[in-house]
Automatic annotation (TrEMBL):
Protein name: Sensor histidine kinase
InterPro entries to which the protein is assigned, alphabetical: Bact_2-comp_sensor_kinase (IPR050640), HATPase_C_sf (IPR036890), HATPase_dom (IPR003594), Sig_transdc_His_kin_internal (IPR010559)
Species: Paenibacillus albus
Domain Signal transduction histidine kinase internal region residue range list: 394-474
GO molecular-function term, one example from the UniProt record: phosphorelay sensor kinase activity
Gene3D superfamilies xrefs: Histidine kinase-like ATPase, C-terminal domain, PAS domain
Amino acid sequence: MVRVLGITAMVKRIKTAHRSILSHLFTLLVPMLVPLLILGSLSTFLIKLYIQDQIDTKNDALLSQTKSYMELSFREMDSLSANFSANPVLSVTMKDILDTGQITESNFDLLKVIRNFVDSTVYANPFIYSLYIYFDNEDKRFLSSVTGINTVDKFYDSNWYSLYEGHDNERVWTENRILQRRKSEPATRVISIYNRLRVANGGGVVVMNIKAEYIESLLRELPAINSQSILLMDKNKHIIAKNSDVNYMHLFNLGLFSSNDSFSRDMKIDGRTYKVDMLTSARFGWKFVSIVPKSALYSLPSKLMLLTGLLLIISTIIGLFLAYSLSRKKYLTLQMVNAILHAAERGTPLPKVDQGRKNDTYGYITENLVKKFVENEFLTIQLSERKYKLQVMEYIALHAQLNPHFLYNTLETIYWKVASYTGKPNEANEMIENLSGVLRYSLDSSAHFVPLQQEIKYTLRYVDIQHIRYKEKFDVVWRIDEDAACCEVMKLILQPLIENSIYHGIRMKQDKSIIRIKAELIGEEHMRLTVTDTGAGMDKARRLEVLSKLNSDIEGGQHIGLQNTHKRLNITYGERYSIRILSKKNWGTAISLTFPSRSQ
């Protein structure tokens, strides 16, 4: 019977756990999945609808922008041709020079004007490779921006003339060509734009050779999507330039692009649909073509649907994990509360509370019931310790007040005793007087921060003491900014740095050394103090050892002054402000401190 009751209780606990898991799963997943599913589906539908409305408009605008930009870039051709058409004197003079091959005083000035105009056009537009001006003449002379007046048969580029002769009726046309000025130079692909000139006694032409790479750079800068191919074709359906290496032209019949009318249509080839747009330029006879797979246009909705499905799966997995985790924690917490209540009823020792379950409401309550007693005891001990420390500190403060008075009286006695031996003040009296001043300054507890100029005043007394001791073994150079001198610094911030330079650098060196002390403001909020000496210096291993001791909790050692200054910086300004040491063996050492500046 007892065994049956135990099995029944176990089945009830399992059913309770299952119900708890299902309840948590429903509570977590419904708020997560329903909004995500609605938002993902709605976003996909709206974006696809928006793209369908915008595709035609965007492609038309893109091609129109390309066409306008190209024609605007080549406006120099119209300006140059218009000058000859509107000014017959220029045309007649230029033709006369090309006919005769002679430059006279009467036509020299006009030729100079023409050359200046041609050269300024080429130099002002780096995309122009070269420019020719030709009027019909028997010797086939022409004006080139490269070599001046030349003949076709002696010029490296004679192909342009053959192409000119082959077009009798066209006013403006383009040719795709490759030029090479010298054999040592690489060949350059150019697009030659021909603009025919009409004069009273013959014809002529202006030829502008445009660098093909310039046009391709313009196409590459267009805001096209990754799979979109934008092409520039001439009237003979030859590709002049393209924006990328993507090539769809082999899929299409070139007859599609024979028409001079602009069009926009969808074409299905090999099971794939392409969006094809074409815009024609009446100015040069060029065709601006855009080809893009429709799958690329709708890549965003497809990616959004995939992302939505992925998020649904991830949300379901997270929901299952959270539901199981929360249900398990709740079940274990209830077991613990139940065990505590039963133990309290029976008067047996309470079970140990699991310290890891701090996020459970019930666990938090049971844990705090136990912690309260411990905290009360701990607070009582802490109060006793604080009371004891305050008594010790009060005793130390009272004891410290006696030491300065005793030191001052003793130094006063020594001062007069030393003076009595020589009958007048001497170097020993000077050292005692300086030492007394330094002691009074260091033991004065009325201020923890002092103006830098006051700190320097008492630091000079310490330097004078060391000068007497080491007999001019070193010189001190001060470089103090006026603004920095007025700022407040920690008291006794310079003396430990100078002491470190003397005892660990200069004292060990035979030659005379220099200590440089520099104070400057860094920006508006920080000050930097730097003490540099030309003493013995340290190698890298020794420098790292000194730095590690600065951060050590073990007090004492050879660099106690640096260690104390480092700790005072940390306590006063925070741990990110510390001492920086640079040193090189037999060269010297530089110690710098950077900390927030304080105005008086």
